[in-house]
Amino acid sequence: MLSRTAAELYWMSRYLERAENLARMLDVSYSLSLMPQDGQGTGLDELTMPLLITGNMDDYLARHGELDAERLLHFFAFDGDNPGSIFSCLRAARSNAHVVRGRITADMWENINATWLEMRDIAQQGLQSYGISAFCEWVKQRSHLFRGAAFGTSLRNDAFRFIRLGTYIERADNTLRLLDSRYELLGDAAESIGDGSARGYYQWNALLRALSVFEAFTEIYRGSPDKRQVAELLILREDVPRSLRACLGEINQILASLPGVNGRPAQRMVASLEARLRYTGIEEILDEGLHVWLSDFILLVRRLANAIQSSYLEAA
Amino acid sequence: MKLTISHDTTYRYDDQVRASIQYLRLTPQESERQHVLDWHLDLPCPARAQRDPYGNILHVLNVDEPHDSLLISAHGSVEIDESREAEHDQQSPLPFLRFTRLTQADEALRQFALHHCGARRDRNALIELMFGLGEAMPFTPGITTVDTTAAEAFAKRGGVCQDHSHAFLACARSLQVPARYVSGYLFSEDAGHLASHAWVEAWLDGAWYSFDVTNGLSRPERHLKLAVGLDYLDACPVRGMRRGGGGEQMHARVLVNQPVMTLQAQQQ
Amino acid sequence: MARILYDEMYDASGAVRPHYREFARWLANTPPEQLAQRRREADLLFHRAGITFTVYGDDQGTERLIPFDTIPRSIPASEWRVVERGCIQRVKALNMFLADLYHGQRIIKAGIIPAEQVLANEGYQMAMQGLDLHRNLYAHIAGVDLVRDGDGSYYVLEDNLRTPSGVSYMLEDRKMMMRLFPELFAAQRIAPIDHYPSLLLSTLKSSSPVDDPSVVVLTPGHFNSAYFEHAFLAREMGVELVEGADLFVRDEKVFMRTTAGPQQVDVIYRRLDDAFLDPLAFNPDSMLGVPGLLSAYRAGNVVLANAIGTGVADDKSVYPFVPDMIRFYLDEEPILKNVPTWQCRKADELSHVLAHLPELVVKETQGSGGYGMLVGPAASKAEIETFRDRLKANPAAYIAQPTLSLSTCPTFVEQGIAPRHIDLRPFVLSGKETRLVPGGLTRVALREGSLVVNSSQGGGTKDTWVVED
């Protein structure tokens, strides 16, 4: 397959996954911002959270100067001039799909094209009138629908593999960042959770819900979330589809099945990362310090993405 | 006269270049006027030679390894037959009647050409045109770039040898005289002029005659020809593309016989 | 001035011509609601399949359809065989002309065509001088635009030897007709055309000396108006659709970047103009081409279809010489007529043109797409005067021809069925042999009285039938 075609497919699904993740982030931040804030403030801290996670805070401040709830939400969700907004991600995904229209099934193309057209309509209506939660829900549903169309209609060929690859790279990065940022926001409180502190409870719960693993958590751990369990669930559990371990497992399999020898650096890298997770316990991670460990891994995933980029997507 | 050339061109890039490809026209040819005694290129990796569309010797240099600089060197010596004024050619000169973006004649250039040549299409007329352009466009570095067209440079009343040559080409072609761009080296005792040089040749009485607007010379005694073409883009010594690298600084050092001269930009 | 119009379906007395009888019977027996319903279906299917014409710079998820008319243009097979032989003869001569022009230039030496006319022409490429091509073929794919005058005889309006487009519409129109009206195809023998992509692929493969060469289609990208066609042909032939950035040159060979590493390319079916092919040799600002491509081409390591420098042979200023080329190279009389042409660069012909502007069609020699032309009888006084000034300022850039009436064909319009002017573009493939599929692309000017059929000017298309008679 042409490297450019593979790149379009890969980025199409990365942008789509990113839009979904942004919606998940926005959803949790928005609902937490409505909670009582332990006596202090307006919930703005919560609303700036997604921008901090995605590294778009400076752009926002450069454009708008001050923090304002409505502007924050608009900037994050609808602003076509902010390349990190949900709007921009859906536009980018559609534009990637358009180029490789002949390589994806009609169901996939129609889904992604319709998503973009609806997105433009929703942006016309405005976020407040559409409803923030309803919007986040809509983004997730569109992403589910696309994934369903891909799984249900696509030939299991290299095109499909690069689409899946984009999803898992983006998702691995996102899970790491979300966990890291929640942990940071809780600060010292994170350590003492488990004693039923209301703040910690809401924070971890919100994170679990954002990643759609609340039910999984209660089924596996049967209790209130604490740092150790949440971290284990999101980093090491093979059976949790948004966990780091699950993502790297998929990437490993996909890379192993791609033809050619030029991908060896990326193949080696992912195999060793997966092995590292397979033979690591949560205690070792916590001993090293969760934040340190997560920061380190965010970098490793980025390196893996770079290796994929240079091995396959711009080959030679 | 024997000319000895040493020409180093160094490119430095802000970032790593992943791969680059260059068309090099840095090798003179045997002709009635010039006899190549020895010539070689020093390149970062071997390059193949072929003939380009204008019959010039073209080396295609591929650098596939990441690099942050590139050194291209040409060395050699050539015997110039000063008594020869013109060169003959088997190929039809008619394709050199065609304007290009850089040599398109506007009304001002057409009028200028007519003013100097009237109905005459001989060597004397073109010599007058050459002096006229030299006066109208005094040598002025810095006011034009490699992208400046003949008409733009003429309107600015100045430029360097590339602009002079383009303006002359525009005028000659507007008079229906085939004319072509020449890139090469000039030996010059006074260090005020650069050694990498450009001039033109016009087709008169069945042969190519040289006109160096910048120096007001119609006898190519000290000119060593590297390549010809419709304009600068066809004949320039180095034309390349690269993947990655960011910004670039180019540094060229040319020695023709004794004088040492340095130039900072591709433009001459 | 009263014009005699030739109608493809009805003769002068209003009777249906024999090769349209079957269709006319069917049309009379099919309820109008059903026809309207099928036409809506066609629109929907074309939209869904994305058979569209991209509007430049479009980001809105909307694309324009080229209007498709469901009444076919039909040609009796006996008549087609003459057209076919005429096209083959013409394209053979044009290829021989190009080979000669870039080598010995016999035709210039014989005084048949003035040297300046071709050598100083913008389409003449120095890069091709003395370069030997496999099978001496330059225009592997040619589109010959034909029209019919009032007496029904065919004229060549122009030759398209660079990157002729429209063949995808020819194929899609046929698919659509077979899908909507299968009964029509059962009732009579209509020559099939759906093997065009496989003929094209074998033509492209035979253009290379390599055994089983690797072929790609090179497109300027999805912003190009003909992108659909590029993607369509690549898919139908089962070859990669590449953009310039997908290719690179190393050691004078062309490779494509794939996920499994570099892969050598032997034949490039390029849908990119000469000026954009290699930014190191031609237009330096072009990001569409492949740096170094010309060096690989001149080293003989890759085939370009069509070759560089074919534009000199389809230039309107060279068109008047084509009948002489046929006589010179093939020693045959031209089967298809040229439209009489005045060359405005000649003073006496210019004065004739200036005196008769309201009756003539004036065209730019270096233009395409129907923008730089004057259709005298359809133009206002003011338009004619404006054009007169342009013509006087640069006469060499124009030629003029009498206004041909162009045949008409019944076409669905808002008020029902009415005659509209049409042309015909057969696609001629030159490889081991020169051949074409029966028919071609019929373009129709949808505006009443209009003679401009270009899709950029609101033209539509029809399926083209060659019917056994």
Characterization of this structure:
- The complex is a heterotrimer of chains A (316), B (268) and C (469).
- Chain A has helices spanning 3-33, 44-54, 57-64, 69-77, 86-99, 106-125, 127-130, 132-153, 158-186, 198-210, 214-221, 227-235, 244-256, 264-278, 282-288, 290-313.
- Chain A folds into two domains: 1-154, no CATH class; 156-316, Four Helix Bundle (Hemerythrin (Met), subunit A) (Up-down Bundle), CATH 1.20.120.
- The mean pLDDT of chain A is 89.
- Chain A starts with a helix and ends with a helix.
- Helices cover 75% and strands 0% of the residues of chain A.
- Chain A is built from 16 helices and no strands.
- In chain A, α2 runs parallel beside α4.
- Chain A has 316 residues and is mainly α.
- Chain B is an alpha+beta fold and 268 residues long.
- In chain B, the strands form two sheets. In chain B, strands 1, 2, 3, 4, 5, 11, 12 and 13 form an eight-stranded antiparallel beta sheet that branches. In chain B, strands 6-9-8-7-10 form a five-stranded antiparallel beta sheet.
- In chain B, a hairpin with a 3-residue loop joins β12 and β13 (260-263).
- By secondary structure, chain C is α+β, with helices and mostly antiparallel strands.
- Among the domains of chain C are: 195-305, Rossmann fold (3-Layer(aba) Sandwich), CATH 3.40.50.11290; 342-402, Dna Ligase, domain 1 (2-Layer Sandwich), CATH 3.30.1490.270.
- Chain C is 31% helix and 23% strand.
- Chain C contains 14 helices and 23 strands.
- A five-stranded mixed beta sheet of chain C has the order 3-23-22-19-18.
- The radius of gyration of chain C is 22 Å and the shape is globular.
- The B-C interface holds B 19, 21-23, 48, 50-54, 58, 60, 62, 64, 91-92, 94-95, 97-98, 230, 233, 239-241 and C 105, 115-116, 119-122, 124-129, 248-252, 279-281, 284, 291-292, 294-295, 298-299.
- Chain B: GO terms for molecular function: peptidase activity.
- Chain B: This is Transglutaminase-like putative cysteine protease.
- Chain B: Keywords: Hydrolase, Protease.
